[in-house]
Amino acid sequence: MKISPSSRKRRGFTLLEVVIAVGLLSLIVGMVVGIARTSLALGKTIVETQNEEMRQQAFFELLGRRFASLPGNARLDLKVDDKGSHYLSDLTLQNVPLGFNWSGGERIAKAVQLSTVKRRSGFLDIVLRYYENEILEDSEQSTMSALEEKPFAEIVLLTDVSYFEWRVLDGRSMEWQFDWHNQGRLPLQIEVTMAMGAKGEEIRQIFWIPPRLNPEVVMRQMTQGANQNQNPNVVNPDGQAEDSQDGDGSVGLPEININPGGETSPDTQ
């Protein structure tokens, strides 16, 4: 029996052809999905890297502005605690009043502390704390120690920090130190060394602290100068300084005689 040509044209694909076609289609779809997934992961990594760099830049800009605007009577205290795997530090700035809104109300912070907090994962968080009162123990206005004083606001500036270390440059000895407790004097430079993540590169930044006059010392000197101007001393021929005031406490002035001609002349007695 012969099969007509028309019946041969109506034959479908064989099972082998269908399997090969499905396999090729699956391979193409898998390649497209893999490329798309890789592109999305790469884009996400780039965005995260950019965000991390922006956070670091904003962090360093914040420190730079804060150190550059320190007043002359500001106090800086740096305490470092060796915990074996990490150095935990507390950098306290005092006499730098900051006013801002927090929780719907206006608050003023008399002390600011930048602390490193260790997490269970082994990484560090950089936390900025605001205190309503002075927290340094030897402050005249401090009512309680730093351990008893609680911050009214905390802001986490950086997370997943592998290490974070401070160094300060003493302007007198020109030596780097890892802590600072000199009251009434600020360091010349502050250096911070840090790294982000497990494989992050080391970042080092140095901040200058411009020298400024202490307003309390200036006011004290002005007051002393005003008191000296009110009580001038006259040097006698013996070289001793004697007060130019009279016995009744009034300042002695030369007597003036008025001549009949209307001219005035000092008394020569």
Notes on the protein architecture:
The longest helix is centred in the N-terminal third of the chain and has 54 residues, at 15-68. With 269 residues, the protein is an alpha+beta fold. The strands form three sheets. Strands 1, 2, 3, 4, 5, 6, 7 and 8 form an eight-stranded antiparallel β-sheet that branches. The protein has a two-stranded antiparallel sheet with strand order 9-10. Strands 11-12 form a two-stranded antiparallel sheet. Strand 3 and strand 4 form a beta hairpin. The relative contact order is 0.09. The protein has helices spanning 5-9, 15-68, 215-230, and strands spanning 75-82, 87-102, 105-118, 124-131, 153-169, 176-177, 189-196, 202-208, 233-235, 241-243, 256-258, 264-266.
- How far from one another are the termini? 165 Å
Query: Strand-and-helix sequence, N→C?
Result: HHEEEEEEEEHEEEE
**Helical percentage:** 25-40%
**Gross morphology:** elongated
Low-pLDDT stretches: 241-269
Note the total helix count: 3
Classify the secondary structure makeup into a structural class.
alpha+beta
Strand content: 25-35%
The largest sheet, given as strand count, sense and whether it forms a barrel, is: 8 strands, antiparallel
Please give the number of β-strands: 12
Gyration radius, rounded: 39 Å
Mean pLDDT: 79
